[in-house]
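fyi for ur records
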Amino acid sequence: MENLANLFQKYGIKLNKNQEQQFDLFFHHLVETNKLFNLTAIIEEKDVAVKHFLDSVLGAKFLPKGATVVDVGSGAGFPAVPLKIVRPDLDIYMVDSLGKRVNFLEDVILSQKFDKMHAIHARAEDFAKNNREKFDVAVARAVAPLCTLAEYLLPLVKIGGCAVIYKSAKLDEELSQAEKSIRVLGGKVEKIENFVIKEPDMELMERKILIIRKVSATPTKYPRSGNKPKTEPII
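which gave:
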């Protein structure tokens, strides 16, 4: 992808030649597969570079070295695949409920020859039943309202670990609704980091990344099954 390294450099992220090639391969794989079934509405090269690749890697600095990471609702691999490219030390599990997406993610793992990268076909609440408090970090980008998302993520995180959640400028409104959910599930808001991506001929993009620290064990009844985190959120 043209000028990707320069784009990342402007936001404090350095790419080597191998990483540039990995992003280029992922871009072409994404666009070609998208012709067969819908992975993303964003397919123009510059838009993908900014709105998917750069946006995804903004959270890399919050992930401890060698961390086990679960990306819940990974979709087409965002933020997991860009995070893996810039942070090959991470052990990442991508969980998604749609089989076609998981097949795509498995193809990406093979084509990129990724080590310590896994694609799992499961609903988040079902995956949590056998993976409670297993991960150092849980991440999610554009998946669900925060009060719902907390119930998907926090049961998966070890005490002392954290959830790294990508949100829009409307985060403050969501936080006020999610205070009880975060507390009940064993979390505590640690910080919010604000990013502004401003590129020529593109609408200004504001990204907020919320860090929730896991301070106590999640009660065993969470996450609830039957889509209840979405239909009956803890509020």
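Residues 4-231 form a domain with the Rossmann fold fold (CATH 3.40.50.150). thats all i got for now
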